[in-house]
Design a protein that fits this description.
There is one protein chain. It contains 7 helices and 13 strands. The protein is an alpha+beta fold and 362 residues long.
Amino acid sequence: MAGKAFRKIVVPVAATTALALGFVVVVLDDGGTPAPAASACVAPGTAAASSAAPVPGSPVAGVDAEQMRNAAAIMKAASDLGMPVAAQLIGVQASIGESTLRVIDFGDGAGPDSRGLFQQRDSWGPYADRMDPAKSSALFFKALQRVEGWESLEPTIAIHRAQRNADPNHYTRFRPQATEIVKALGGEAAALVDPSGACPAAGNEVVGDLAGKWVRPMAESINTSGYGPRAAPAGTAGGVLANFHYGIDFATPGHAGTIVAVTDMKIVKVRNLDGLFGTGVTGQTTDGKLTIGMYHMEAGSVRVKEGDTVAAGTPLGTEGATGNVTGRHLHMEFFAGALPNPMIPINATIDPTPILKEKGIL
């Protein structure tokens, strides 16, 4: 992510888990009051969605027609199994990482018998099946279905557990391109699907009594890290620039807490497994004086939609460990004014501490 994504500094708490269209036809959920998780977005198959269907050229930079046809076959295989959009994204991401979306008829030193789009070894099935885009894709998705809780894992971890690759983070860098490909093949219906696989949903609901109150962001939580200079934990992204904490952290001892709106706000951005920030929401206070970001929520747990206006205390999501973190917690940032997307370099954070103390939160 560009801009201030490098700023995410983390505090160790108790470690927890973190989360992943149909070709031609993609069915998106367009309603419901919590925001749908990726697993709710099912793209049923269609006779027109054939792996042999021609793909004229390619609208994705660096991806040719052959690769797009193979991606379409992967997406159709997930659709035929009744799996969600998130699975289709994961399948394309996995194949990019294994074979650059080509049916490869050779292995490598670690797996000389590996073949096909997913570099599946002899134990996966007959050679002919592994070399067939549709059948090898079905083999992959059936393995993914056997991964307990795959829908709630970071996509690279879900793929790793299905594929048993030596490096669990190997597939991370292929997510953006996989998203481009899936959106291109999904057409207009897929245009708003984000990299998490979550389905877009209309917002503009008013939730709760807008009374101007302020509340603690999680009941029973403790303040684990304040705003300002601090030594970044080893391995934190951003190098020396990470030695400043641009927000304030809260954690709930012993379990994952429910994150709520600290005050009345309009939700202007919902993020799902978005780079270093993970899953979270950004809201503007109804008086326009503050923009508040709340990050690292559990994947798929966000309960509000962009455009909603929510009262203080409205559940937003579940405390998690998505993004650049070493443990479960809530990271909250404040910005002056009403900003639709504060994660750019010109938008400086402000210290939430005086405001939260004045409101009786700290």
